[in-house]
Amino acid sequence: MDKQLKPSIELHESGSNDENLELVEFKPIQVQAESSTSVVNKIPANRTNDDPKDKKLLRKLDLHIIPAMTLLYLICFLDRVNIGQAKLNGLTTTLNLSSIQYNNCLSAFFVTYILFEIPSNLILKKLRPSRWIPLIMTAWGVATTFIGRVDSYAGLFICRIILGAAESGFFPGINFYLSSWYKRREISWRVSILFSAVSLAGTFGGILAYTINLMHGIWGQEGWRWIFYIEGSVTVIIGALSFLFISDFPSDRPKFLTENECDRVIVRLRTDAGPGASEHFSWSQVGSAFLDWKLYVWSLCGLTITVPILSLNFFSPTIIANLGFANYQAQLLTAPPYAFAFITTMTTAYFSDKYARR
């Protein structure tokens, strides 16, 4: 708000006599209070991530955001596909499941996953990441733990439905979250690190399942139940702790950044024309997205990639065992392909960002 000072006249004494008094007029001046937005707009915005100050800022963001999100996604994917390892350890035998019933339980996850993806991300914008991400993580951890207690096809089916609904908002949510911190050219490398968590989950999932299965018989529980007990409980604990270490958006002034650093993040996003935390949702945005032909092309690409990957995640332990290997050997042999995939993912992403080639 502009404030104007009223003109005033003062007497200036230049001598001891009254006739030597002269009038001095003070002219009106304008005092303008700048908003925080105008201050941000004055920050030089033509710097790239080659700027030393921007490099320091990116390192700070990476150390605070990327390791936490990667850990959470690793746990997310591990809880999603550990049913494949549990099948090898006797899940279908204990529950007396047919092949069709087992496949139905796998598919049930994706039905609610698809239905709740968009609503979950709308809630994310309303409740903030520091609340919604830990909440859904705790929810799917509870669902995973309860799979260890099921004793029928119906119980497993219901738990998988709940698991899909809870996990549905996580990966799209963290992609939106990253876009609120990084420029578009910088996201590819970071998202690839997140995708590497899938490979790590596959690498350690079999080894972890083999180790946990050694607990078979403890407290009268089968080994496959312990897989869900332990992995689900770890998810619940980390989900509760994530309330403490997940920050919100740059405009919320998180404690790990200074005021100037927060302003710089906002300016970088604005000049990059990326999605910012200050955007307001409207249904017209949803409509324009569905009218964009590129959405369907990329969806088809994602479908053709995801279907074989998930099929291997769920069935590779059984496929390897059917080749004549013992169950423990089959679980251990699932690790090498994922280890190689981890190296390939990181290498491809590095050069994609380095040369700005997609």
UniProtKB/TrEMBL annotation:
Record PROSITE patterns: MFS (PS50850)
Domain Major facilitator superfamily (MFS) profile stretches: 65-358
Gene3D superfamilies: MFS general substrate transporter like domains (1.20.1250.20)
Protein's organism: Rotaria magnacalcarata
One Pfam family named in its UniProt record: MFS_1
GO cellular-component term (any): membrane
InterPro entries cross-referenced by the UniProt entry: MFS (IPR011701), MFS_dom (IPR020846), MFS_trans_sf (IPR036259)
Molecular function via GO: transmembrane transporter activity
UniProt entry keywords in alphabetical sequence: Membrane, Transmembrane, Transmembrane helix, Transport
Protein's recorded name: Major facilitator superfamily (MFS) profile domain-containing protein
Membrane topology: Multi-pass membrane protein
UniProt keyword Membrane, yes or no: yes
Primary location group: membrane
Subcellular location: Membrane
Source organism superkingdom: Eukaryota
Residues that span the membrane, as ranges: 61-80, 100-118, 130-147, 153-179, 191-212, 224-246, 295-315, 335-352
